[in-house]
Amino acid sequence: MARMLRRSAATFATLAALAGCAPPQEPPATPAAPPSSSTSSAPAAPATPPAAEAPSSSGYAGHGAESIKPEVLAKYAAPALPPALSRSIGTLFEVRAPGAGILSPDAKALYFTWTITGIRQLFRIDGAMRFPSQLTGGEDATVIVDMTPDGRTLVISRDRKGEEYPGLYLQDAKGGPLVEIQHKARVQTMHELITDDGKYLYFRANDIKPTSYAIYRYDIAAKKRELVFDQEGIWRLTDIGKDGRMLLGRDVGGNMTEFFEYDPATKKLTPVIGQGEREEHEAIFGVAPGEILVLTPKLGEYRRLYSLKGGKLTPVTPELKYDVESFEVDRARKRLYYQINEEGYSRLKVIDARTYKDIALPALPRADHVRFSSATPDGRYATLWLDPGNGPSVSYVLDWQAKKLTQWHAPSIPELDASKFAVATLESYPARDGTKIPMLVRRPANCEKPGGAAAATASAGEPCPVIVMFHGGPEGQARPGFSPRVQLLVDAGFIVAEPNVRGSDGYGRTWLHADDGAKRLDILTDIEDASKYIRANWGKNGRVPKVGIFGGSYGGYSTLVGMTMFAGAYDAGVSVVGISNLLTFLQNTAPYRRILRTSEYGDPDKDREVLLKLSPITYLDRVKAPLLIIQGATDPRVPAGESIQMHEALEAKKIPSELILFADEGHGAQKRDNQVLQYGHVVRFFRQHLRGERVD
Questions:
Q1: Among 47-51, 105-109, 419-423, 666-670, which stretch is predicted with the lowest mean pLDDT?
Q2: Helical ranges in 214-260 per DSSP H
Q3: DSSP 90
Q4: In a domain, 525, yes or no
Q5: Angle at 13 between CA 8 and CA 18, to 5 degrees
Q6: Per-residue DSSP letters for 50-69?
Q7: Between vectors from CA 596 to CA 554 and to CA 5, what angle results, nearest 5°?
Q8: Minimum mean pLDDT among 10-14, 42-46, 506-510, 626-630: which range?
Q9: What pLDDT does 320 receive?
Q10: Which residues contact 453 (CB under 8 A, 6 or more apart)?
Q11: Is residue 488 a part of any domain in this protein?
Q12: pLDDT value at position 518?
């Protein structure tokens, strides 16, 4: 059974969807200080350690809602928004697109996830452009992850309050109650694959040890599970051969994997590729006997798909200056679908799964992204996901036999004119060492790019304020495509710029690893350089624009860095679930995250000094501008204590800051009402501090 491969997609896509932080949608009244004039490549550490360098002094330990006192949650609950602002934000959150979905084997029904109820739930549509039926409900985020080959049973993942400890369930394709496979507190139960005969479902879970993932086989008919593999490590199952051999990946870093073949009969584990290399690999069994398909940048700068036979890698895809970001062989083993990340834009390619010769796709509508979603077991039909860039995404079904493309559902855009939505343009700015940093920019209609006709003839007026929005990861990437969260900032009158600083994905292995460990000190200046460029080049009539900084997760960390280490570069900042202290973060994040994050940031014991130099809380004395901090209490990735200790430290120094805690959210707000509150306060805060407006 071949599966789509790329760990960032295959392993974390479900968690990102459940947590409401899937890309590209994710993140007081004092005069602004002038930009910092510092040009040093690495900021100097303070003479003494910060006050919040460890749990014993920071006052927090662990993660989850239980780590926060009820009175603290009550004190920092999100205030109500002014009605007019709430309505305007809420309208954009009604712009929703159904997920790409999974097509039934007979191509008569499409099953997909949709947020039309205010949170992700599962729907079925019985024919193209028909009215959908809702299959799941409640307050917990629920997504479809697979379907049995006969089309009778759906596999569903469900999370509670954004905790990212999802459970796995089955549901009859006609609807009805869910049948629990496994859902345990503080345990991640993740779907892996279903066998071609539909008898068994494989999943992994860290229920034996928090820092290790065991592989289980579940008998769908008998409703019984059995342990298949439980060696120490962060293991995942990517494929099963016809002879029963299993292809297992062991993650040894945030983007580093070793692959092994495992024989369940003999319990023999045989190395395949990546052992000791600390390099990125993805692998499934190929169609030819003895062949393994491997996606890796091992032999070049960019990820490329190879055929591995006899220890030799032979290229399958052409050599490009872009990454192959994901691939999948359909269950019928007829076609291999792969996506190319072309400067952030997703381009779909199809080749014969046996000969690797190109297969022409029919003409597709213009889109920023075209991605493969699923194929029917016989391979005749494929579901494609298209993001037009100026509106919500749309799903199409491709009939290979008829060479026909059919749209199956349409997005919701109530009371809005989609033709006025901003489209991202690809621009760049120079870092202080001359490196060209890619940057996606969306502008309001009245904020033309400097040098344009309107800008040249303008005789008066202030320059449009700018919000620099940093992505998460840190191995993430700002991508073009439609985002209602970015659009609401544009509608509020802000230019939104999203840099892909060094350390971002999508620009080759050198760029990706430029920020590993202590090297991060040398490239964090990319954060400050974005503001310097904007202030110097996006002014109007001799006036310099106000510039804010915004981001979630690692983007929240970037925001805190921009506001502390590079104080004065930005006039206001909003950090959502951001890391304030890398040392306390690594000590308190969920165990399964800690192992993967140390390879990216450093070891809490060996690299303690570097981690403190990299921590925003170390540079609190430099803060010059107001800061809004937003956090979910149940977050297992970035503990809520990271936000609370930052706010309390700012308060102690009488530095203006605001803190909002969501008691029922995790790594990003996923419930519709909470999303409106979160982004409403983001807009309110930036309007106040970048535009000087009072929002009542």
A1: 47-51
A2: none
A3: H
A4: yes
A5: 145
A6: -TTSSHHHHS--S-SGGGS-
A7: 90
A8: 42-46
A9: 95
A10: none
A11: yes
A12: 86
Q: Residue 382, exposed/middle/buried by CB under 10 A (0-12, 13-18, 19+)?
A: buried
DSSP string, 532-570: HHHHHHS-BTTBPPPEEEEEETHHHHHHHHHHHTTTTS-
Do the beta carbons of residue 306 and residue 314 sit within 8 Å?
yes
Q: Please give the single-letter amino acid code of residue 301.
A: E
ω into residue 480 within 30 of 0, thus cis? no
Residue 542 belongs to some domain of the structure: yes
In angstroms, the CA 665 to CA 565 distance is 29
DSSP 160-182: STT-S--EEEEEETT----EEEE
The CA distance from 195 to 347, in Å, is 29
**141 in a domain, yes or no?**
no
Range of the domain at 532: 54-91+417-452+460-690
Point out the least confidently predicted range of 359-373, 413-427, 447-461.
447-461
Q: Could you tell me which residues come within 8 angstroms of residue 104 by beta carbon, excluding any fewer than 6 positions away?
A: 110, 111, 147, 151, 173, 376
pLDDT at 565: 97
Query: Which tokens belong to 40?
Result: 């040093």
Burial of 137 from C-beta contacts in 10 A (0-12 / 13-18 / 19+) = exposed
pLDDT score recorded for residue 573? 98
588-608 mean pLDDT: 87
Look at residue 39 and tell me whether its pLDDT is greater than 60: no
Q: What is the CATH number of the domain that holds 485?
A: 3.40.50.1820
pTM here is 0.88
Contacts of 293 (CB under 8 A, 6+ apart): 5, 283, 284, 285, 286, 305, 306, 307, 308, 316, 327, 329, 336
Pull the structure tokens for residue 22: 């899937």
Give me the number of domains the chain comprises.
Answer: 1
> Which pair of structure tokens corresponds to residue 575?
């950090």
From the CB of residue 206, how many other CB atoms can be counted at a distance below 10 Å? 22
SS3 188: coil
> What are φ and ψ of residue 469, in 5° steps?
-110, 120
Question: What is the mean predicted confidence (pLDDT) over 130-142?
Answer: 95
Q: Which range among 80-89, 122-131, 193-202, 587-596 shows the weakest confidence by mean pLDDT? A: 587-596
Per-residue pLDDT band at 452 (split at 50, 70, 90): low
Q: Output the pLDDT for position 694.
A: 84
d(CA 209, CA 229): 13
